[in-house]
């Protein structure tokens, strides 16, 4: 990290890294107290840092203009900072709010996590900052503690009402595994995930269509889900199963089953698809975990594709580029594919027999060219560990 000395005129005390993530399955479930199954990527945000005793926080990023953002730890207020610096500043604010005795630091960030691609560069930036502060100020926070601070920074300081998945994936993951997270109990389980061992690749296709999750669409979906739960008298949509949203027209003679009506019929038409997505998506996470634990990875493919159909048709958060990438990947030999991340663009993941990876990438690139979309950026995902010190 040569950027640090040139920005701050001294060597850093250390370098920390926090990974981006892709979510295998479990989209828009985390704010419904549901299940998610992300993996941490080998792409990381790195932070070179040095403690300061004057309370100043100086921030610079190799991915932004060369300006150093100069702040004071004690003066941080939600809404008071705009732009990228709000993410790291929000972490310091959240630490202060949580009663930790922290002060200033110089931080220089560098990253290979594409920003705005649905790969959670924001959580990586927050978790890298939290990891820096944890060590520089000897806070003794656990990985969950880091995730919780980072999540609070994004929610309450930056103002994105995101669930807790991204920060948990970036802070708590382990290499060679996916992270099953129950966002109600916060119970976590590392589930083996090693596509290479099965002759497969998890291909990531960044469509380069950039979403802006602060623009209200995400907040609207979240509010819709919370309203539906309230109308049904539930704490969260997590409490529904596929049985609850099935209308049973069979006559078994059992009055508990015959004539059972889907709870969807009690909701306004606009909320019904949201509920259907959340319920079926939680079910897909459970199926996916069973598949990973049984070691029959190719069977994950159809689950990915079904998940995409649900995002496209029920949540309506896909876009022409992500739909084209999914359809083309599957046609060209992927076992399954879906959009990952909050929606409205971002990245598509495809589970591909390794000998087909080049062909699938070429097919999607050609289809994008023909449709006059920007060329997608493709890479094969490798799993990695959560936020940690690297030097
Ligand atoms: P995602 O988390 O999917 O990448 P977000 O919109 O949540 O998308 O976060 C992207 C924002 O995070 C960027 O607009 C920028 O403000 C900030 N960011 C991400 N990476 C960096 C970086 N390397 N340096 C500075 N800011 C970054
Ligand atoms: Mg983000």
Keywords:
391 residues, alpha+beta, Ribosomal Protein S5, domain 2, Alpha-Beta Plaits, 2 domains, eight-stranded mixed beta sheet, four-stranded antiparallel beta sheet, 12 strands, globular, binds adenosine-5'-diphosphate, binds magnesium ion
Q: Distance N terminus to C terminus?
A: 11 Å
CATH architecture of the largest domain: 2-Layer Sandwich
Enumerate how many helices there are, as a single number. 10
Q: Which class of secondary structure composition applies to the elements?
A: alpha+beta
- Which segments are poorly predicted (pLDDT under 50) over 5 or more consecutive residues? none
Number of domains: 2
Distinct ligands: adenosine-5'-diphosphate, magnesium ion
Overall mean confidence score, pLDDT: 95
Topology:
Elements: H1 3-8, E1 14-25, E2 35-52, E3 56-61, E4 69-72, H2 86-97, E5 104-111, H3 121-136, H4 143-158, H5 165-172, E6 177-182, E7 188-192, E8 200-206, H6 217-231, H7 272-294, H8 300-315, H9 320-331, E9 336-340, E10 347-353, H10 357-370, E11 377-380, E12 388-389
Parallel strand pairs: 3-5
Antiparallel strand pairs: 1-2, 1-12, 2-5, 2-6, 3-4, 6-7, 8-10, 8-11, 9-10
Bound molecules: adenosine-5'-diphosphate and magnesium ion.
The site of adenosine-5'-diphosphate (ADP) has 19 residues, from strand 5 and helix 3.
Write a structural description.
- 35% of the residues lie in helices and 21% in strands.
- The protein has 10 helices and 12 strands.
- The strands form 2 sheets. Strands 1, 2, 3, 4, 5, 6, 7 and 12 form an 8-stranded mixed β-sheet that branches.
- It is globular and about 75 Å long.
- Helix 3 (121-136) packs across helix 4 and helix 9 (320-331) packs across helix 10 (357-370).
- The mean pLDDT is 95.
- A hairpin with a 6-residue loop joins strand 9 and strand 10.
- By secondary structure, it is α+β, with helices and mostly antiparallel strands.
- It has 2 domains: 3-193 and 384-389, Ribosomal Protein S5, domain 2 (2-Layer Sandwich), CATH 3.30.230; 195-380, 2-Layer Sandwich (Alpha-Beta Plaits), CATH 3.30.70.
- The structure holds adenosine-5'-diphosphate (ADP) and magnesium ion (MG).
- Magnesium ion (MG) binds at residues 120, 122-123, 166.
